[in-house]
Amino acid sequence: MIPTRHLIAAFLIFGALSLTGSLAQAAERKALPVDQASKVQGFEAYRSDLLAAIARRDVEAVVAAASQDIELSFGGDAGPDALRSFLTLSEDDLADEYKDQADAMREGYWDALEEVLRLGGKADGPDAFDAPYTWTVELGENDDPFTTYFVIDRDVPMRDRPNRHGAVTKTLAYDIVEAIDGGEGTSFQKVRLATGETGFVDKAHLRSAVDYRARFERRPEGWKMVFFLAGD
Hints:
Layout: H1 4-27, H2 43-55, H3 59-64, E1 66-71, H4 80-87, H5 102-118, E2 122-123, E3 128-131, E4 148-151, E5 156-159, E6 168-172, E7 176-179, E8 188-192, E9 198-202, E10 206-208, E11 213-219, E12 222-229
Parallel strand pairs: 1-12
Antiparallel strand pairs: 2-3, 3-11, 4-7, 4-10, 5-6, 7-8, 8-9, 11-12
């Protein structure tokens, strides 16, 4: 017969291990993708048409899909003319030191708009929609928006070095992570998980909490994009 004290000790050890595992699991933070476009009448068709316009780089169709009072920055950029200028950015619009970046900046703006639309979002009543879904996640009071990132894919490897040859230490799926110093000069970002684990993740799988987001509202003339902003 096993002494009672041994049974008690085994029970306590097993309980401690189970509790540790539960706490680690509970500490994980996720933001699963969601798309409620079908919940608001007419929005799916509007979004589909807007995505098609973006794919063919149809500036006037995109401008027509925006409201007359669309907000485009926290610095006062607003309205159809401002949106058109961002979509058609050329060397002539930039200071000399930035002229060679005109093409990349313009295409980056188009790509950002497309990604916002493709990453789903949430309905805000019957006449409004916020995108992408990451923008609709409520952060904790201790979260810094500028260092909070979302893993926007599943089966994303976290590595021990900032390159694709690094050993995979964990596989992520829609985790909420904190960006920390590391990986500078590479395509990888060092992150800290809610569990405290750290590693490097390809930036292509990450999205900042203050990245571009958009709001769409049903106006008398139909669905319109009323802001497209980045920053906080």
